[in-house]
Design goal:
335 residues; alpha/beta; Rossmann fold; 2 domains; 7-stranded mixed β-sheet; 5-stranded mixed β-sheet; 13 helices; globular
C-alpha cells in the first residue's frame, strides 16, 4: 500500500477544534467515555471547545452539572473506579483549589491503597494562563501543584496536534490525568493529522526547533514565546533549540539533559510562579544531568510571584515574553 501524500493526511485546524475532535473520536470509539462539568452541554463551555458534542452523544454522556466542582469531580472519581472513563471539565485551573481532596487524596491514591485492584481512568481537563484580563482568581497557572503528586499524570499541550494526541492518550490511560490547555491557545491553528489513532505518548518531549547555541525548554503557550524568541535570535546569529516537554509527569529528563549537553546553555520558560515551580524542577534536572557540559548556569523565566493583576498593563508584565527570552539568551551567550 502506498503512503498517502502528507497534504492529504493533515489539515490546519484550531487548538479548540483539535480538542473537540479528540473527545468526539474517543466517545465514538468507547461508549464508556463521558464528559461532565459546568455548561458542557448547553453552552459548549465558556470557550466553546465542546460545541456540538451534546447533539451527537446526548445528555446521558455530555452532562451539565451544578456549580459544585468537588461534587462532580467526586462523581467522576467514582465513575472511573466502577468502569467508566469520565472526562471532568474544570472550567478554570484556578478551581483546582476546590477539588484537591478528590484528585490528590482519592484519585491519585486508590490504585496504591487497593493493592492494585482498583484503577481510576479519569481525565481532568482544565486551563491555565494569564493575559486574558480575568483577574487573580481566573488567571493562575497551577500545574506545579498536581505535577508534585505521585499517582497523577500531567500534560500541557502547546500545539493543536499535541492537544489532540495528548487528550486521546489521557482518555485511554488507566491512571488519573490532568491536562492543561492555555486559554489563549484555543484559536491558534496548526497542522493536525487526520488519523483518528493519533496518540502522543506521555513522557516524550518534542524538539520544536533544532539549534546549537542554547536550549530553550518551554511549556504550554510559552513554547510559542520561545519559538518567537528563537526567530529573533537567529537573525542575530544565535541558533536556539526549543524543547517542549509536553508532559511534566512523567518528565522526559533524558531529552532535556541531552539537548543542554549539545548546546551548553539552557533557559527554562514556564508561566507558573518562579518559586517552587515547574521551571525550578526542570532547571534542577538539567543542572544535575548536564553539569559538566554547561557553559553557564541554567536560567529560569517564570511568572512573577504576585497575584495576577486585572490591570492590563500590569498583567502583561507578570509573564515571560519573547523579548525577555532574547535578552536572557544574549546575556547567557555574550556576557
Amino acid at each position: 500500500m502506498s503512503t498517502p501524500d502528507v497534504a492529504t493526511r493533515t489539515r490546519v485546524i484550531s487548538f479548540s477544534k483539535a480538542v473537540n475532535e479528540a473527545l468526539a473520536e474517543e466517545m465514538r470509539r468507547d461508549e464508556r467515555v463521558l464528559i461532565l462539568g459546568e455548561d458542557v452541554a448547553e453552552a459548549g463551555t465558556p470557550f466553546k471547545v465542546l460545541a456540538g458534542l451534546v447533539e451527537e452523544f446526548g445528555t446521558d454522556r455530555v452532562i451539565d452539572t451544578p456549580i459544585s466542582e468537588p461534587g462532580f469531580t467526586g462523581i467522576g472519581v467514582g465513575a472511573a473506579m466502577t468502569g467508566l472513563r469520565p472526562v471532568v471539565d474544570l472550567m478554570f485551573g484556578d478551581f483546582l483549589t476546590l477539588i484537591m481532596d478528590q484528585l490528590v487524596n482519592q484519585a491519585a491514591k486508590i490504585h496504591y491503597m487497593s493493592g492494585g485492584k482498583l484503577t481510576v481512568p479519569l481525565t481532568v481537563r482544565t486551563t491555565l494562563g494569564a493575559t486574558r484580563r480575568s483577574a487573580a482568581q481566573h488567571s493562575q497557572s497551577l500545574h506545579a501543584w498536581v505535577s508534585h503528586v505521585p499517582g497523577l499524570k500531567v500534560a500541557l499541550p502547546s500545539t493543536p496536534a499535541d492537544a489532540k494526541g495528548l487528550m486521546k492518550t489521557a482518555i485511554r490511560d488507566d491512571n488519573p490525568v490532568v491536562i492543561f490547555e492555555d486559554k489563549l491557545s484555543f484559536q491558534e491553528k496548526g497542522p493536525v493529522p487526520e488519523d483518528d489513532e493519533l496518540l502522543i505518548p506521555f513522557g516524550v518531549a518534542d524538539v520544536k526547533r533544532e539549534g546549537r547555541d542554547v536550549t530553550l525548554i518551554a511549556t504550554s503557550s510559552m513554547v510559542q514565546v520561545a519559538l518567537a524568541a528563537a526567530e529573533t535570535l537567529a537573525a542575530d546569529g544565535i541558533e536556539a533549540e526549543v524543547i517542549d516537554p509536553r508532559t511534566t509527569s512523567p518528565l522526559d529528563d533524558a531529552a532535556l539533559i541531552e539537548s543542554a549537553k549539545r548546546t551548553g546553555r539552557c533557559i527554562v520558560i514556564d508561566e507558573g510562579h518562579r518559586r517552587y515551580g515547574v521551571g525550578a524542577e526542570m532547571a534542577a534536572v538539567v543542572a544535575d544531568g548536564a553539569f559538566w557540559w554547561l557553559d553557564g548556569p541554567v536560567r529560569r523565566l517564570s511568572a512573577m510571584d504576585v497575584p495576577v493583576p486585572f490591570s492590563p498593563v500590569l498583567e502583561d508584565l507578570t509573564v515571560p515574553t519573547a523579548p525577555d527570552v532574547v535578552a536572557e539568551a544574549v546575556a547567557l551567550i555574550r556576557p
